[in-house]
Give the backbone structure.
Amino acid sequence: MLDKDLAELYGVNPRRLREQVKRNKARFPAHFMFRLKKNEVMGMVSQNATPSLGVFGGSMPYAFTEQGLLMLAAVLKSKTAIEISMRVIEIFVKMREILSANKEILVKLDLLEKKIMGHDHDIQTIFSALKQLLVAKPVRGNRIGFRRGDEKD
């Protein structure tokens, strides 16, 4: 997002926003924020996305990434920026709680899966033994005991 749009969103003057960025330069590395080049701004004007260069207040605008938006909310002192900062913190805490709960569930599911897999192996072993018993032919050995005269082996 551009600095002028963020200034409106956070309820501050665009000049004040750029001033805070300059004062807190260490908080805005290249992957948080960068300044648009003149040819990029001219491209916006020529594509009718922006009516004229005057919209930018006479200087090349800053563009902010998601991380830059959050850092900007932390350095600005407007009521809206403070509310956004607090809301972001609340969301991160809630996300951590959700991830923690899901992690516990995943661990329990993993243990259950391992337990069931062990049972599957045991059940297969039992079925295999039963099949061998059903298929096995009875072993004929010598009869034990006495035979009557009319009996055969």
Observations:
- The two ends are 100 Å apart (CA to CA).
- Helices lie at 3-10, 14-23, 38-46, 66-75, 79-135.
